[in-house]
Amino acid sequence: MVISIVGIGLIGGSLAITLKENGFADSIIGVDINSDNIDKAYRRRLIDQDMSLNDAINASDIIILSTPVDAMRQLLPGILNQVEHQVVMDVGSTKVNLLNDIKQHPQRGRFVATHPMAGTEYSGPEAALPNLFDHKCTVICDAMDSDEDALEKVRDLYQSIPMKVLELDAKSHDVHTAYVSHISHISSFALALTVLAKEKDENRIFELASGGFGSTVRLAKSSPDMWVPIFKQNRDNVLDVLDEHINQLARFRSLLIKQDYDQFHQLIQESNEIKRIIK
Amino acid sequence: MVISIVGIGLIGGSLAITLKENGFADSIIGVDINSDNIDKAYRRRLIDQDMSLNDAINASDIIILSTPVDAMRQLLPGILNQVEHQVVMDVGSTKVNLLNDIKQHPQRGRFVATHPMAGTEYSGPEAALPNLFDHKCTVICDAMDSDEDALEKVRDLYQSIPMKVLELDAKSHDVHTAYVSHISHISSFALALTVLAKEKDENRIFELASGGFGSTVRLAKSSPDMWVPIFKQNRDNVLDVLDEHINQLARFRSLLIKQDYDQFHQLIQESNEIKRIIK
Questions:
Q1: How does pLDDT run across B233-243, given as a tens digit for each residue?
Q2: pLDDT tens-digit series, residues A175-197
Q3: Domain identity same for B111 and B41
Q4: Which chain A residues contact residue B179 at CB under 8 A?
Q5: Contacts of A118 in chain B (CB under 8 A)
Q6: Structural domains in chain B (count)
Q7: Helix crossing, A224-233 with A235-258: angle to 10°?
Q8: Are residues A129 and A36 in the same domain?
């Protein structure tokens, strides 16, 4: 199997390592408009060769889109214009707009929309990790709009890693990811800015910050080039969740102002329910 | 050296393991109003014996207060009434009120206010860990108000672990910890409530949530019995930081509403500066 990876960063690069290592891919072609990324991908031995997008499409069995999500929207219709037997899949964090764009495309069936739920706060080929996806979940969206053989190939790909495959409609996917991924990032960005805005003595932060702070602020290291397009594509859902999050913080604020510590205790106990869900 | 640990939970229990293991303590006495905690502490071999607080004070060289911070305020003046040569230290997250309470106490010098900057989201003797404090920072507050020999004993204790010892005045300590510890907890509690409030299908959260969400919401598992007293003792500082945090979230919200993605990108880039501080 020849696999092209369009956008050879953290996610694309990690897939490249895994699929080559487990034998699912015989050869990995790298496609990236950033020649630095191609250089780094060669040096990290993520790819066997690099090509232009057009050549890569013609040479591949599977084309994996792992660019920022706005670039995917620009690229996907043109790629579908060109494919025949090939399968195209994405690994992006938002789905509704992307799938609307190609709803009427005659080659819609060759595309499988997927979202492997794994990542780190780092980006670029240098951030690629060999076991990033092992035993995590991946979502396939609107599976009924993909051709049966394309779907089967993509399922085989994920099961080779192995990842657990779930199916969701695109709309539900975008709502759920706003809750379990996108809001966490905004919360971390805002927390980092909060501390940076007030704390001038940086060594003091560094020295006093323990694991708890590091954990809540870790995602604030994430790349704006990757994340701004996600917030843009999923704006309405993210706004809903952000409003709810600000409301929840305002409840804590109001209880502190009123010194209503019984109710404050009650709210923390309710939030502890997350234990049942996140191990 | 005989050491009493008053409040044998995560922090007290972890100190018990470490100080016994490294030989700093010859014997550990457990004191806890909760007899369940004493039972668990025996079963985990955290303590050599248990005593009433009065007996423990008389039998010890060092008394470590590791209860919730409001209980410390209730206990400390009475303990100081009783000590002669002994050293009393606390390991609490807030200092200003505790130290104000005993400012005029004739035995003030026997007390050393400390805060080892380490923990987990779990609590109780069963959560105690052998290497929780290794190579982390501990803060000693208002060191000039402690007797020289008491200070030296406490420094020796922390260096035996080993921990790095910093000095801060109590007021600065309470401001800094509001930023690097207390706000992270409120942010996590609120994030957990946000997701719990909107997501009814819990399995879906569990399946889709990746490491990023787990990381930002981890602290929401923390005990309200430990944390409400901290927010109560450090209310004014926590309110300042919480206001700032809500303002930062409101900036992101406003930019999303205006669809000003350039400025959104800029804000994320600013928040990325946290990289320089948190490795």
A1: 999 999 999 99
A2: 999 999 999 999 999 999 999 88
A3: yes
A4: 194-195, 198-199, 205
A5: 210-211
A6: 2
A7: 100
A8: yes
Give B178's contacts in chain A (Cβ within 8 Å): none
Judge if A158 and A210 occupy the same domain.
no
Partners of B274 on chain A (C-beta within 8 Å) are: 192, 195-196, 217, 220-221
**Distance (Å) from the alpha carbon of A214 to chain B's nearest alpha carbon:** 7
A234 and A116 in a common domain: no
CB A222 within 8 A of CB B265: no
Q: Which of A189, A206, A208 sits opposite B271 (nearest CB)?
A: A189
Instruction: Give phi and psi for B113, each to the nearest 5.
Output: -90, 120
- Considering the domain architecture, whether residues B81 and B191 belong to the same structural domain is answered as no
- Measured between CA atoms, the residue of chain A closest to residue B117 is A210
Query: How much is the pTM?
Result: 0.94
A5-19: per-residue pLDDT in tens?
999 999 999 999 999
Burial class of residue B100 (count of CB atoms within 10 Å of its CB; 0-12, 13-18, 19+): exposed
Residue of A nearest to B248 (CA): A190
Q: In terms of domains, do A164 and A187 share one?
A: no
Indicate the residue of B180, B195, B256 with minimum beta-carbon distance to A195. B180
ipTM metric: 0.93
Residues B180 and B268 in one domain: yes
Distance from CA of A160 to the nearest CA of B (A): 19
Range of the domain at B193: 173-276
The string of pLDDT tens digits covering residues B146-164 is: 999 999 999 999 999 999 9
Last residue of a domain, one of B114, B141, B169: B169
d(CA A38, CA A236): 35
Distance CA B143, CA B115 (A): 12
